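To: structure subgroup
Subject: Chain for Friday's discussion

All,

I'm putting the inputs and outputs inline so they're searchable in the archive.
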Amino acid sequence: MNFVKRWRISAQQAVNLPSCDRKIESPAVLFSSGGYAGNQFHDFTDVLIPLYLTSRQFNATAVFLLTDKRYPWTRKYMDILQKLSMYEIINIDKENKVLCFPRMIIGLRSHKEFGIDVQQYPYYSMKDFREFLRGTYLLERRTLPRGPCFVKPRLLVISRKTNRLLKNEDRVADWAQIIGFHVITAEIDDKNMTKVSRYVNSFDVIMGVHGAGLANMVYLPDNAVVIEIVPFGVDSLARPYFNIPSKEMNLRYIEYKVSLEESSLLGRYPADSEVYRHPGEIQSRGFLGFRSIYLDNQDVTLDLYRFRRALLRALSYICG
């Protein structure tokens, strides 16, 4: 993978090993913040959840050896990193001394996309991980009360500015307001995760077009609702990325599949194009081509009357 440094493990006779410049009595975990890190979904899927799975067993006594260090990334997640390790992170790419540890783990343990398999070692769950985040960021709302609503539930519409735009976002927000939500539309500024986590935790429902912004569901209280707007042809990504993970986080999930009539792809290709008939075939030939069509160059305009059912369902989950 680009932007991920390769490391080699070699076994040598003890007599051939260099002497230690620094002997550290704690175990070490070597991992990378390169690759796709920087995208919030991949921050959790590729680094933070695997780092939790790998290092939590040491009760903050492991030393982190970070390769491909990106200073904005480490600053962004410093609260989590400091919760998982009491030691200062070592930028191993710039280290010129011989460091010796009694034990070292090379790479991170990962189970699946944006999730944890409770049947696999170390037998944690996404509920455990969310409790860890609540403690790290001091999130006030742990769970939503059940029963009738005496104030309007808060709904966050996650706005996008580059691709997969919700073209009638303002009308969708107005529609949700009429139905009974207190609606706020915002693009998530993910530079200050303490601020982001507490902001998202204040909502009862988050809604957005398929994308990294929905990864902020990790900060929602239990029993909150996630509405994913799935662009035309992107069904295969919705289930593993957000559908299954939301349920493992004790959240309620609503999927709204965009029809071709609601997609900006309509009219861009011949009527009998494979783009319309067989998105899965295009995906099977390579993700880059699939992404170019369905993720990078598709916007959506929702049929408000059709989408109304998803909003009413969300309202019933919260106030039912």
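Points worth raising on Friday:
The chain is about 35% helix and 15% strand.
The mean pLDDT is 94.

D.
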